[in-house]
Write a structure and sequence with these properties.
The chain has 288 residues and is an alpha/beta fold. It contains 10 helices and 7 strands. The N and C termini lie far apart (52 Å).
């Protein structure tokens, strides 16, 4: 489908402390976009300032922060914001029986509710302009589910459904909605997930305790580097740029070979085979 171009090349990009968000901010700035990046931690905000950006503090788990950040972004561009890239998020690791209600709620507050609320704050401005782009950064786990990542996968499944509904609802308004579905990317995601697991899981009491301990240590000490299967964050940033600039943005953008293989497998393989393949990610599953 063809969409009207964004006349004012200004974009709000969330989650720009490192990784995909930081790379996207850099790629879009080089391409001539006025980039307004966000981060949550003061140290990350200062790092962005040192890199020449004027960031906005944003905590997606806090509704007041979301509303204030949206208003500040609109103020800075005199109401002419052209696009939103929803990249901020994190992964809650843990078997579902070990994930508390509070931990599951926070996973959805950040990855789903905050993301959608931010988009809703900006939609009136896009509607008045008769154009706009929303790019939601999902994951290969938006259409596949892995053991010990059920909370994160559920949040990305929800993001994908919301994005699909939003795309259909906004088509007549000239506002395009695209999903980015990366596979393995060389970022701090794994390390951050390991840190989050240590904070939120009662490892000593879990049947999966030993699995957690080994996985946490492995993720904290194994650096992700670009290779044949793992791509740098700039590979995702380039797809985001296409979604923002193309007259015919795609509904979905797969990134990395594992993402393409996963999409094909999800479509054609029996569920029993998919379950068996995904279970191989468990180092060793405790038995009753």
């Amino acid at each position: 489908m063809k969409y009207p171009p964004v006349r004012q090349r200004s974009v709000l990009v969330t989650g720009c402390s490192t990784g995909i968000g930081r790379a996207t901010a850099a790629v879009l700035r080089t391409a001539g976009w006025h980039v307004i990046p966000t981060a949550r931690a003061p140290a990350d905000l200062e790092s962005l300032r040192e890199d020449g950006f004027a960031p906005i503090a944003l905590d997606l788990a806090d509704s007041t922060s979301v509303v204030d950040a949206a208003a500040e972004a609109i103020r800075r561009v005199d109401g002419q914001l052209g696009a939103l890239v929803n990249n901020a998020g994190y992964g809650q690791v843990g078997a579902l029986e070990d994930v508390s209600r509070d931990a599951l709620r926070r996973q959805f507050e950040v990855n789903v509710f905050g993301m959608q609320e931010l988009a809703n704050c900006l939609l009136p401005h896009f509607r008045r302009a008769g154009a706009g782009r929303i790019v939601n950064v999902s994951s290969v786990y938006g259409f596949l589910t892995a053991p010990l990542l059920g909370s994160y996968c559920a949040s990305k499944h929800a993001m994908e459904s919301l994005s699909d509904a939003l795309r259909m609802e906004l088509r007549s308004a000239g506002i395009a909605v695209s999903l980015i579905e990366p596979g393995p990317i060389a970022t701090a995601f794994r390390n951050n997930a390991a840190t989050q697991a240590e904070r939120s899981l009662e490892v000593a009491r879990s049947r999966f305790g030993e699995v957690y301990r080994r996985a946490i240590e492995r993720r904290k000490h194994r650096a992700k580097r670009p290779d044949f299967f793992t791509r740098p964050p700039e590979a995702v940033a380039r797809k985001i740029r296409h979604a923002l600039e193309s007259p015919r943005p795609r509904r979905r953008y797969l990134v990395t070979i594992p993402a393409y293989v996963g999409a094909v497998g999800r479509r054609f393989l029996p569920f029993a085979v998919i379950d068996s393949l995904m279970r191989t990610q468990l180092p060793r599953t405790p038995r009753e």
